[in-house]
Design goal:
Elements lengths: L1 H32 L5 H16 L1 H6 L8 H23 L6 H40 L4 H7 L1 H10 L3 H25 L1
Helix pairs in contact: 1-4, 1-5, 2-4, 4-5, 5-7, 5-8
Amino acid sequence: MKNGIVIKNIIPFLVSYSALIFGAIFIDVILHFFNIVFIGKYLGYLGTLTILTSFLYSLNKRGIIKISTPKILLDYHEYLALSGSIMILVHAGIHINAILPWLAVLMLLINVASGLVGKHLLAQANQTMRERKLDLKQSGMTEKEVAREIFWDTTSMNTMKKWREIHLPITYFLGLLSLLHIISVTLFN
C-alpha cells in the first residue's frame, strides 16, 4: 500500500517539477547551441507577462472579473504559470550575478513547488473522497449516513484546502522580489 501512495502522490509531483527544470535547461542548451542566448532576455519579459496573465484565475475567483468558469481558468492558470516559469528560468539561466535575482529564482522554484504540491494533494483528496462516498453508498448507507460517516474526512479536506494560505504569501513574496529585480535592472543598467 505504501508504494501505491508514493506512486499516486509523489511521482506526479516529481515528474511535473522535473519537467519544469529540465525543460528550462533544454531550452537554454538550444539557445547556447545556436548562439542566440540574447533571446533569454526577452523570455524574462514574456515569462513575466505569461505569469501575470495566469492571475486571471485569481481575479475571477475573487469576483473582480467574470470571464470564464473557474475550472477552465484554473487549467489556464496552471499551464500559464508553468510555461511562464520555464521562460523565466531560461531568462535567469546560470548568468545570475547578483543576490536579488538568485532570491527571485529561488522563490519562483518554491512557488511552483507549492502550486504543484497543492494541485496533486487536492486532486488525490478529491479522488479519495469520491471513492469513499461511492463505497459507502454501495454498501447500502443512506445519504444522511454517508454524510455523517465522511464528516471528518470532509473536515480534513477543507483544512487541506487551506494550503492556499501558504501558497499566496509565497506568491506575493515572489512578486515583490520580481518587482525589486525589475526596478534594480531598470535603474542600474
